[in-house]
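Hey L., structure's done. Input below.
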Amino acid sequence: MDSQAALLLRDSVSRRKVPLVPADPARVTIYTCGPTVYRYVHIGNLRTYLLTDLLVRTLRFLGYGTYTAQNITDMGHMHQEQLELGEDKVIAAARAAGRTAREIAAFFTEAFFRDCRRMGFLPADVYPRASEHVPEMIALVRRLEEKGAVYGRDGYLYFDVTRAPGYGALSGAALGEGTPAERTGAEGQRRKRRPEDFVLWMPAEPGREFQWDSPWGRGWPGWHSECAAMAMAHLGTGYDLNVGGVDLRFPHHENSRALAAAATGKELARIWLHAAHLLVDGRKMSKSQGNEYTLDDLAGGPPGGGKGYSPAEFRYYCMTLHYATPMNFTWEGQAAASRGLARLREAFRKAAERATAGSDAAAALRERFRAALSDDLNLPRALSVAHDAARSGIGGDVARALAAEWDRVLRVGLPGEPGAAAGAEEVPAEIAALARERDAARRAGDFSAADSLRARIRALGYDVVDAGGGESSMRKSPDAPEGTAKDGTGPESR
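Output:
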C-alpha cells in the first residue's frame, strides 16, 4: 500500500484512545515484555502475546512497516519476598529439576518459541536476552548514578523515584502513599529511603550461577533495569509502542519508564498498550488450584474428559473479547468459541464453492473490517464483519479473496489461506543463501547491505529473527510486506 490508514489505540498513560503517529510509518517500533523462561507459558501469557501479534498484523494490514523486539528474561528476577536471598525464578526451577539455570532457560525458551509458532504468532525481529545485555544494564545504572538518582550500600543500589519526572502517570501510583515497588523484607526496607524506591543492583550470594562484575562489586541487576536497558539498546528512546499485560503496569512498566526518563530526559515509549487479565472460572490461575492451563492442556480437553481444542480455536476465543476487556476462560466458553470458528470456516467454504458474486458488496465489507481494526484493534467487531460477509451472498473468487485478506490478521484458517503458523517447513536454498550473505554483511559491519538483504528475504515470504549472541534464524511469514529496509537505519544498524 502506498499510504497508511489511521489507527487509534488505547494509551495507558493518557487513559484514552489516541492516534498512532509513528516517527517512521515504514518502521513502527514495538517492544513487548516477553517471558521469564522457567516454566511453560500459560494461556494468560499467550493472550497477552496475542495482543502484539494482532497489533503487528493490523499495522501491516493497514500499510505500515514494523520492527519488533521481545525480550527473553533468561536469568529470572528475584522472588519479590526473597530479595535479600538473591533468589530468582530461573534458579529455583533449576534447583527443583536438578539442572543448571542456563539449561532450564534454554529448554523453556525453545518451548516458548514452539508455543508461539503453534499460536500463529509472527516472530519478533529480535529477541534480546537479559543475560546478554548486562553491560547495557550496568551502563544504565552508571548513567543514573551520574544524575544523582542512585543510592545504596553493601552492594545494593536503589533508584530514587523522586528523580523521575512524572512518576506514577502510567499506573496511578502516588509518591508518599507507602506503596512499595517491591517486597524486600524488613532488612531491604531499612536500606531504602522510601517504599517506592526499587533495586537496581544486588550482590551475588556464594555459588550463584548468574553473576557479573560491576563497579559496585560482583552481583546481578534488578528486574526493572533489565527491560529498560534492553528496550533502549534495540529501539532507543521514544519508540512507538510498549506492549504487555496489565499486571506489568505497576511496578514493572512504571519503573522501567522512570529509569529511562531519569537517565535520558525522554519518554521510553510514546504509547503504552496493556492486555487485561485472563481468569479461569472467575479465579486467578495458579498451580495450586490446578487451573494454570497451557496449550497442551487445551489440546487434552477439559478435566474429566471431552474434546480437545487447537491453538487456532483458543486464538479465536481470545478475539471474541477486546484485548482491554478481562477474559474469563471457561471450558464452556472455549467450546462455544470452537463452534463459532467452525461455523465461520464452513460458511466461507460454502461461499468459495459458489459462483463468483458480490464484488460490489465486498468493498463495503472491506471498509467495515478495516474500520474495526483501526478502532483500537476491535477484533470482536472484525469477527462479526467476517461472519456477516460469509452469510452475505458473496461467492467464488470474491469469498476466497476476502478470506485470504482477513486471515492475514485473524490467522484462524479461513478457506483461501492457511491459518496455521509455519515453522517446520524447510527453508528454500535461495532464502538460505540470502541469509548467509546477510550474516556475512553484519559481521563485516555493512549494515546498509544487511538491511537490503533482510528486505529481500522478507519480500520472499520469510522473517529474519536475531536471537542474540550474533545468531539468527528464519521463519516462514506469508504476511511479510516488501520493502521494509531502511538503508542502514533499520535493525542491522542497531
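Residues 313 and 338 are 5 Å apart (CA to CA). The chain has a mean pLDDT of 86.

-- N.
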